[in-house]
Every structure is written in C-alpha cells, then in structure tokens.
Design a protein that fits this description.
One of its GO terms (biological process) is transmembrane transport. The chain is mostly helical. The chain has one domain: MetI-like fold (Orthogonal Bundle). Helices cover about 70% and strands about 0% of the residues. The protein has eleven helices and no strands. α3 crosses α6 and α6 crosses α8. The chain is globular. It starts with a helix and ends with a helix.
Amino acid sequence: MHHEKRTFEFYVLAAFFALFVLFLYGPLSAVFILSFQGPNGGLTFPMNGASLHWFFNLFEKQAVGDFGASFSRSLMLGLMVMVVNVVVSLMAGLAFRRRFPGANILFYGTVASLVVPSIIISLGIGVVFNQLGLQPAWYSSAFGAHLTWTLPFGVLIMFAVFNRFSPSYEEAARDLGASSWQTFRHVLLPMIAPSLIGVGLFGFTLSYDEFARTLMTSGTYNTLPLEIYGMTTNVTTPVLYALGTVTTLFSFSVILMALLVILGLRRRAARA
C-alpha cells in the first residue's frame, strides 16, 4: 500500500513537472522555429521557407532598434552587478557570522526591497536623480536599481551557506599557524567558491533580464529588455524571433559555463 502511494505521488509530480517544462519551453520552441523563417516569412505559422536570413539581419542597420548597442549595455550592466553582488554578499555573509549593533535593521532594510513593487523603485530612483539635477543612465541609476533587486538574493544565499558552514575548518587552520588572510584564502574561499559563482550567476541573470527596474532609470539609451519591448510594437518581421533565439542561447551558455566552472572546482577539491 505504501509502495503504491509513493508510485502515485511520483507520477503526479512527474506529470506536474512535464506540464511545467511544456509551459516554460513551449513558447520558446515556437520562437526558435519561427526565427528560421525564409526571407519572405512572417510572424506566424506556417513557415515560408527556411533560412538564416533573420540572424544575419540582426547585424545590419535596423530602422526599429539597435540590437548591438543595447546588448552591450545589458552585458556590461550585468557584469557590473555581478561583481558588486558577489563582493557585497560575501562581505555581508562574513559580517553576519557575528552579532553587531544594528544587524537586524541592516538585514531587514536589505531584504525590504523585495516586497516593494519594482516599478515603484524604478520610478522613485528616476525622480530622485531628476530632483538632484542628474541624468538617469544605465550605468548609474539603473545600476543602483538592479542592485536593490539582486543584492537581497545574494545576501540570503550567503546567509544560508554560512549557516551550515562549520567553523572547525578555520579553527584547525589557525591552530596550524595560518593567519586570518591565509585561512580565508586557502580554507574558506575554496569551500564557498561554488556558492559565490552561483551568487554571481544569479546577479548577472537577474540584471540581464530586468525590465521594470530599468524602465525609469535607463535614461536615453535602452538595455536589451527595453529594446525588445519597444520592438514588439513596431516589428513586423521574424528578426525579433532571431533576437530572442540568440539571447536565449546566450543565457543558456552563461549557465553552462558556470556549471562547468563549479564542476571543475569540485573535481579540483576532490583531488586535493
């Protein structure tokens, strides 16, 4: 009876997961297929031939968008957010291992931005910059807006990592004569490196795809999500689908590279 119940639960979870994957990747598969429309193809099925025409069209001068510049802005912004996210989250994780005055206020102040609507934060930052006589830009106001979204997740992840991290490893290193820096460099850092990569990847992907907190803070120049949103109202060719396919493959490539790095670190640690 117990075995039959577990079998039933397994099939229910399998069916739910299958529906979830279909709902998640079904639209992506349609975008992927339609991006290979022929030169005279439209935005819907059936396909009119098959070619790479719209992928090459991405690199040409567009009347409705600037793909290359918007992608480079999103990439640079994502990398900036990733670096700050990793450094600050690591410092916060180390600091909160010991109690200090104002720790609770700092913690709740950090995670409070998760419950505030993103568009309100974007609007507030944009208004503040205008009141100060500063021009909102993707590398300043949008950068700060993205950190209000990515930092709480990074901090919470590092809290979970250090919560289950045994201090006995550090104590053993200090007993053997290691300094604080040597303990951090040769003991602590290699053990939490996969988690730091995850925090960096999380910060990069959240920033790279962020729309609401960029809407009022990017200034004159669009990031890629804003560029894609603007294109949905005036693009009449599958070039938008080609852009979606390229950006999706780029995102998956970043995730794959991060997983390979984590796997390499784990193998290195196992050999050591």
